[in-house]
């Protein structure tokens, strides 16, 4: 990690932030402000409004392509459309859009459909596969897909005969309970053997994405929303299931969506999309400086949600990782290191000067000291590590944005040890420190779920009436 440092005596940076404070909007939906401090471009967003719609990802569950894979993190396609219309609606030529934490590709797909070129970076190989598959749907050979679907229907008739397929074995995924029952696992191995033999990479990836989307539904685990055993959630174990039928149902849904999107986009000028499976901090140097017109992204929130661990089933069964060491590598490279990875380390110092944040960290370190790494000191390390990554991120964004380019970062506040940490305001201030103009901070969701931080007896400190919310931090390159 680079040792960036900004001195508190940097008057120019402080002056920029004092100016920026005058345009920060903390009005929530429906709340009247004396002065409209935050304004979106006058061109609107295509539906007569001048504000972003609700960013909640749940809307995507009913949209073609977006509905393929359930994803707890992310934002809605309509939110991305609003951002693109607001900041690129005036352009007559293709722009370059990036998403440094692209997840399952919502930003990329919407940008490409609007005729812009898009680059997404994602460190987790499973959502990277999904994002790449969605983009490939625009040009997928439907005749080959139909032929492959017919083949799997014929082959799957023998999957429940109890025989174990030769040459394929379960991955070394450790879990408290067998992830699949014996009967289900035999069918899973048959399905994966079939998928591994598909000659077309695009179609094979589609089948892998489909399997990843449905595999937990016939396992002994479930998302509540974090991955846990069915027994712990009060549900019975699954002794048997028709794996082929469940998988085919998802595949035919995908086939319907592909035919629809190809019909809708026929003859239209689409952009080019690219998904890079990598760590953004390593990859950003490979993107030419000053070329990005718009960045739309949502980095992992400061909520200690295990984005990698919650996709362990897909990572192991789809052969992306084969050992705890490989899994650990993904976790340690993740934006905002997990609390478990930093809690017992020596006190982590901020690599920039921000007095309010320093005071918050000091208060955290003095909270529940008797709990050691499980109290305030451990959580202070987590918070400091997270904002150090935010500082690096804003530096990279400043390098990549073209003059006049805009970055829209969806982020949520966090309640840790009873302290309401206004992540969105701190991120905006960091952007100014890194030379960007803070266009504004806009509340896009008044309430969101984040019980893993607020309700755990280990993580809950003083009683706090604060609520978790979601914000769009908008910055601009001069």
Q: What tags apply to this protein structure?
A:
478 residues, alpha/beta, Rossmann fold, 2 domains, two-stranded antiparallel sheet, 38% helix, globular, disordered N terminus
In short:
This protein has 478 residues and is of the alpha/beta class.
Please, could you describe this protein's structure?
The chain is an alpha/beta fold. It folds into 2 domains: 11-125 and 266-302 and 322-476, Vaccinia Virus protein VP39 (Rossmann fold); 142-262, no CATH class. 38% of the residues lie in helices and 13% in strands. It is built from 16 helices and 11 strands. The strands form 3 sheets. A 7-stranded mixed β-sheet has the order 5-2-1-6-7-11-10, sandwiched between helices. The protein has a two-stranded antiparallel ribbon with strand order 3-4. Helix 3 links the parallel strand 1 (96-99) and strand 2. Helix 7 crosses helix 8, helix 13 (355-365) runs antiparallel to helix 14 (376-400) and helix 14 (376-400) packs across helix 15 (423-433). The protein is globular. It starts with 10 loop residues before the first helix and ends with a strand. Residues 1-11, 13-50 and 451-461 have low confidence and may be disordered.
* Radius of gyration, CA atoms, in whole angstroms: 23 Å
Share of helical residues = 25-40%
In CATH, the homologous superfamily of the largest domain goes by the name Vaccinia Virus protein VP39
Q: List the domain count as a whole number.
A: 2
Reading side by side through the largest sheet, how are the strands ordered? Answer: 5-2-1-6-7-11-10
Whole-number average pLDDT? 86
Alpha plus pi helix count? 16
Note the run of SSEs as H and E.
HHEHEHHHHEEHEHEHHHHHEEEHEHE
Task: List low-pLDDT spans.
Answer: 1-11, 13-50, 451-461
């Amino acid at each position: 990690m680079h040792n960036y440092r900004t001195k508190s005596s940097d008057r120019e940076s402080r002056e920029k932030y004092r100016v920026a404070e005058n345009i920060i909007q903390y009005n929530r939906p429906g709340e009247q402000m004396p002065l409209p401090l935050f304004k979106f471009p006058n061109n609107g967003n295509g539906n007569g409004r001048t504000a972003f719609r609700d960013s909640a990802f749940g809307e995507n569950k009913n949209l073609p392509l977006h509905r393929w894979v359930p994803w707890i993190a992310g934002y809605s396609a309509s939110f991305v459309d609003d951002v693109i219309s607001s900041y690129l609606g005036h352009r007559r030529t293709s722009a370059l859009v990036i998403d440094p934490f692209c997840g399952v590709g919502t930003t990329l797909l919407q940008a490409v459909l609007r005729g812009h070129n898009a680059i997404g970076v994602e460190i987790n190989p499973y959502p990277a596969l999904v994002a790449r598959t969605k983009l490939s749907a625009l040009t997928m050979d439907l005749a080959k897909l139909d032929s492959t679907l017919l083949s799997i229907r014929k082959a799957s008739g023998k999957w429940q005969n109890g025989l174990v397929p030769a040459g394929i074995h379960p991955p070394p995924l450790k879990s408290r309970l067998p992830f699949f029952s014996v009967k289900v696992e035999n069918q899973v191995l048959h399905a994966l053997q079939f998928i591994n033999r598909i000659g077309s990479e695009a179609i094979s990836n589609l089948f892998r994405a489909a399997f990843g989307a449905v595999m937990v539904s016939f396992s002994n685990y479930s998302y509540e929303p974090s991955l846990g055993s069915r027994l712990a959630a009060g549900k019975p174990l699954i002794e048997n299931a028709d794996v082929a039928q469940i998988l085919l149902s998802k595949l035919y849904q995908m086939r319907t969506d592909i035919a629809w999107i190809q019909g809708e986009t026929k003859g239209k000028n689409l952009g080019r999309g690219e998904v890079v499976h990598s760590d953004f901090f390593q990859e950003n140097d490979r993107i030419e400086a000053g070329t990005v017109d718009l960045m739309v992204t949502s980095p992992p929130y400061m909520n200690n949600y295990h984005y990698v661990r919650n996709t362990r089933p897909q990572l192991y069964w789809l052969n992306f990782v084969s050992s705890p060491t490989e899994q650990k590598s993904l976790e340690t490279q993740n934006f905002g290191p997990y609390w478990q990875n930093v809690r017992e380390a020596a006190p982590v110092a901020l690599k920039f000067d921000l007095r309010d944040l320093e005071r918050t960290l000091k208060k955290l370190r003095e909270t529940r000291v008797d709990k050691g790494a499980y109290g305030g000191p451990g959580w202070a390390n987590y918070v400091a590590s997270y904002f150090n990554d935010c500082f690096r991120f804003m530096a990279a964004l400043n390098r990549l944005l073209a003059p006049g380019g805009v970055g829209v970062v969806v982020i949520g506040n966090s309640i840790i040890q009873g302290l309401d940490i206004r992540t969105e305001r701190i991120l905006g201030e960091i952007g100014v420190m890194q030379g960007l103009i803070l266009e504004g901070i806009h509340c896009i969701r008044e309430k969101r779920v984040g019980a893993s931080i607020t309700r755990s007896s280990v993580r809950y400190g003083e009683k706090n009436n604060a609520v978790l919310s979601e914000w769009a931090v908008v910055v601009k390159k001069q």
